[in-house]
């Protein structure tokens, strides 16, 4: 961070957003921290039959039944293992609570608007519709996921559409 | 100084609705020849309370209508107006009008002015004809009244008093037998209405001297939210130190003790009647208190005959709050089971105290759960009480004579279910009245009493409530039903069992009524009735005998929040079956299993062939037993059909708290809901019909491929050879 006068810092901070950075394989992703309710371990998930493979099932989060989605399977990562490092990020999306399985959570980053670049049209597995952009941080690149759009999308099959 | 009165709108609407329901009940129960004074009083009180509230909130039309109504009722209860059944009908009509007006206000509309004028005219007419008197005050503006007393504006006399009172109406508000806590609240309220000059007294009689420009009526109306009207006494400050308004006020107002009945209705001809007219336009409580308001120095001590004990002590709580408590208690139960499991693994004797404590905790937690669940339960009376009206009107329209008998009104049912059962039940009752019970002459010809009997009954049976609509009419006509079914292109045969024939009436678009009446006969509805009841997890059974009548039985679960479940194991996974659906379980033998059309299997149980649904197959459970004879067949019933579910193991029975899957996820085929087990893990509650459909769909999808895998999974190969 550059050393700037405090007043300028405050003005800039108004537009800065904080992101929770998590890893899927070797890639680093980020979600808006305001969407995150809590982070917990992966345990005790009850499988749901006839659901897509990335929906691992449901778990009991203090009396609330919460579906668990494994983003590694969704993003077609090679290695999907469940271990002590595997964590579930519980997010709040459109009044719903959903857990997403990731390989690990690294840190919380503050990004200023000019650090967020528009996402290129690239993904086959991950459409750029579900990205809010790419965060560049010196030599690191963060894929900023629009978790609202991703989890409520039809292909996630998490939300029942009225038309159905 | 400003009170936001709109906060109380909802409370008023709910209360008024209850009062109207009470009123209707009393009106219907009323014996016209020998009316019960208590009931007349109750009806009067209901009208009066609504009037008070309507006045406070500025619902003019409602207030004026209730005012007229109240006055008529007052004559009735004093015996000056003899009741007739057509008068009761008028009263019922008025009550309906009040409901309509209430609904209009609730939706933020103005009530129908025409209807209002009509009902006012009807009531005035009734008063003129029956007691030769005009009802004072409250006439609709469009109908000019000859007497000045009838106009809502304050008369000259009261205006004189008003102007005096405007200078500072000082009066004594006495609270009789009000508890300390309520008193503080009341004094605070009074402080909002004016200036509290002095307060004195004890619990039996606590006097507050108030300097205010607000009328007594309005003070009373505000206070009545907290105390009963008879706990309140408002009189002008008699002390000479009071403002000049005081003497004028006390002149006109009789001392509180001298007016045993409420001043308004009793004063029929005296000029005091004018002051009884509630201020029509300015409703001070809704506006700032410094509005110019005719303050009425008339005493309104309501030492009127108001027998206590009629009001039950209850509080109004939002359903959300109750549901939250139920959820929390559910959590507590789960935590308690988890602890229990841990404790059971400890060395018993060494941890005696802990074990004892745990069993105590368990008992308390269960009691708590039961108590909390009972909050949601309300008696069926809530449902049944609306039927006397339905029956009375329907019977009137049809020209039939019908006696309604209700049984088991105190049977309790979950509130959400009670609300949902009303519509289907109303439909069934109308149907029985229209199609079931014959015309009086026909009945006589058949050797039955002219008056038909319709019985509504409710009772508990196991975890279910059974609601029956029983008529002693002609019964269902098998031949007519079959003929009609053929006409409608339904697939029927003469060899169908009675039961199956009766179920035909639930087919969409089915009606055997010769003519469409406005009561029923359009054939729309019975299928909806059945769907609604199934939607509540219940089913309908029909029993009928020609010439003796028909019984329609609705079987419903008591509550949707808690389920008696049977836990079963398939592979390593645990599922819950609703215990109410489980009939029996058995170990199938090779001789009882028959293969059908390749990969369908049926199980023969006591001369009945049941479709076999392998749970592991429908739900893709890995590692389950695939050898049919090693599994356990649970015979279950869903939507009237029976199935044999193949599972690995029966684990036990337990009560589970039903958790919705759709809150955060979506509907899952074959699964109705989820629950949390003692170890904190989630188990899915199976939906039997859905499971069967799922298993069929799976077989269907696999059929073209017909790979050896699926056949092996079902070991049909062996079966084919063995059978």
TrEMBL record, chain A:
Keywords from the named record: Cytoplasm
Signal peptide extent: none
Source organism superkingdom: Bacteria
SMART domains, sorted: CheW (SM00260)
Localization (cell): Cytoplasm
Protein biosynthesis in keyword set: no
Positions of the CheW-like domain: 16-156
Main location: cytoplasm
Cross-referenced Gene3D superfamilies: CheA-289, Domain 4, SH3 Domains
Keyword Cytoplasm on entry: yes
Spans through the membrane: none
Pfam families: CheW
InterPro entries: CheW (IPR039315), CheW-like_dom_sf (IPR036061), CheW-lke_dom (IPR002545)
Name of the protein described by the UniProt record: Chemotaxis protein CheW
Lineage: Bacteria, Pseudomonadati, Pseudomonadota, Gammaproteobacteria, Oceanospirillales
């Amino acid at each position: 961070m550059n050393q700037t006068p405090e007043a300028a810092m405050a003005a800039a901070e108004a537009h800065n957003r904080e992101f929770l950075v998590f890893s899927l394989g070797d890639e680093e992703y980020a979600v808006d921290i305001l969407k995150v309710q809590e982070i917990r371990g992966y345990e005790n998930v009850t499988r749901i039959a006839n659901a897509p493979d990335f929906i691992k099932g449901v778990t009991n989060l203090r009396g609330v039944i919460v579906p668990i989605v494994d983003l590694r399977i969704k993003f077609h990562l090679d290695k999907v293992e469940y271990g002590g490092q595997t964590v579930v990020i519980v997010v709040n999306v459109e009044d719903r609570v959903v857990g997403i399985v990731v390989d690990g959570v690294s840190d919380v980053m503050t990004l200023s608007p000019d650090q967020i670049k528009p996402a290129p049209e690239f993904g086959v597995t991950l459409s750029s519709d579900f990205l809010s952009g790419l965060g560049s941080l010196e030599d690191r690149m963060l894929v900023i996921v629009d978790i609202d759009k991703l989890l409520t999308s039809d292909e996630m099959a998490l939300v029942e559409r009225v038309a159905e | 100084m400003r009170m936001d009165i709109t906060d109380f709108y909802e409370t008023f609407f709910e209360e008024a609705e209850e009062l109207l329901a009470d009123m209707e009940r009393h009106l219907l129960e009323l014996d016209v020849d020998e009316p019960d004074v208590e009931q007349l009083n109750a009806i009067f009180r209901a009208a009066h309370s609504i009037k008070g509230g309507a006045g406070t909130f500025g619902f003019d039309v409602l207030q004026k209508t209730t005012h007229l109504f109240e006055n008529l009722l007052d004559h009735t209860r004093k015996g000056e107006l003899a009741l007739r059944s057509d008068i009761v009908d008028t009263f019922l009509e008025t009550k309906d009008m009040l409901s309509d007006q209430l609904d209009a206000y609730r939706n933020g509309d103005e009530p129908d002015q025409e209807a209002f004028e009509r009902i006012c005219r009807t009531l005035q007419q009734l008063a003129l004809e029956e007691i030769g008197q005009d009802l004072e005050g409250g006439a609709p503006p469009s109908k000019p009244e000859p007497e000045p007393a009838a106009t809502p504006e304050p008369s000259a006399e009261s205006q004189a008093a008003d102007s005096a009172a405007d200078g500072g109406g000082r009066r004594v508000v006495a609270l009789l037998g009000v508890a300390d806590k309520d008193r503080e609240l009341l004094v605070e309220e009074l402080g909002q209405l004016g200036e509290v000059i002095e307060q004195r007294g004890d619990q039996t009689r606590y006097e507050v001297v108030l300097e205010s420009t607000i009328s007594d009526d309005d003070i009373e109306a505000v206070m009545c939210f907290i105390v009963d009207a008879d706990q309140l006494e408002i009189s002008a400050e008699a002390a000479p130190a009071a403002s000049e308004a005081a003497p004028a006020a006390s002149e006109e107002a009789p001392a509180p003790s001298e007016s045993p009945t409420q001043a308004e209705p009793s004063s029929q001809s005296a000029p005091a009647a004018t002051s009884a007219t509630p201020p029509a336009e300015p409703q001070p409580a809704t506006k700032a208190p410094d509005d110019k308001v005719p303050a009425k120095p008339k005493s309104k001590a309501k030492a009127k005959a108001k027998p206590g004990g009629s009001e039950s002590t209850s509080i109004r709580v939002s359903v959300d709050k109750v549901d939250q408590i139920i959820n929390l208690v559910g959590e507590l139960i789960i935590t308690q089971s988890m602890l229990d499991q841990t404790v059971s693994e400890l060395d018993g004797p060494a941890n005696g105290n802990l074990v004892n404590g745990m069993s105590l905790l368990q008992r308390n937690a269960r009691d708590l759960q039961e108590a909390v669940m009972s909050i949601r339960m309300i008696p069926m009376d809530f449902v049944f009480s609306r039927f006397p009206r339905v029956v009375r009107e329907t019977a009137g329209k049809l020209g039939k004579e019908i006696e309604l008998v209700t049984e088991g009104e105190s049977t309790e049912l979950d509130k959400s279910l009670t609300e949902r059962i009303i519509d289907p039940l109303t439909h069934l009752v109308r149907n029985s009245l229209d199609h079931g019970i014959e015309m009086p002459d026909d009945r006589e010809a058949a050797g039955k009493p002219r008056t038909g009997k319709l019985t509504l009954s409710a009772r508990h049976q196991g975890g279910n409530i059974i609601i029956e609509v029983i008529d002693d009419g002609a019964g269902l006509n098998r031949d007519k039903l079959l003929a009609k079914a053929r006409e409608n292109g339904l697939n029927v045969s003469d060899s169908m069992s009675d039961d199956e024939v009766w179920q035909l009436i639930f087919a969409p678009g089915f009606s055997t009524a010769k003519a469409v009446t406005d009561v029923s006969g359009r054939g729309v509805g019975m299928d909806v009735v059945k769907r609604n009841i199934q939607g509540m997890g219940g089913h309908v059974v029909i029993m009928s005998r020609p010439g003796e009548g028909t019984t329609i039985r609705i079987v419903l679960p008591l509550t949707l929040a808690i389920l008696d479940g049977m836990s079963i194991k398939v592979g390593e996974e645990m599922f819950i079956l609703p215990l109410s659906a489980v009939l029996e379980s058995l170990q199938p033998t090779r001789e009882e299993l028959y293969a059908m059309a390749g990969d369908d299997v049926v199980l023969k149980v006591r001369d009945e062939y049941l479709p076999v649904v392998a749970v592991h197959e429908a739900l893709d459970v890995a590692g389950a037993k695939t050898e049919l004879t090693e599994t356990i067949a649970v015979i279950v019933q869903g939507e009237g059909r029976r199935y044999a579910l193949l599972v690995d193991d029966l684990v036990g029975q337990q009560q589970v708290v039903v958790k919705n899957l759709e809150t955060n996820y979506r509907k899952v085929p074959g699964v109705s809901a989820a629950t949390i087990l003692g170890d904190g893990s989630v188990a899915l509650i199976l939906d039997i019909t859905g499971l069967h459909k799922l298993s069929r769909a799976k077989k269907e999808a696999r059929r073209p491929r017909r790979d050896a895998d699926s056949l092996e999974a079902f070991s049909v190969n062996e079966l084919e050879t063995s059978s």
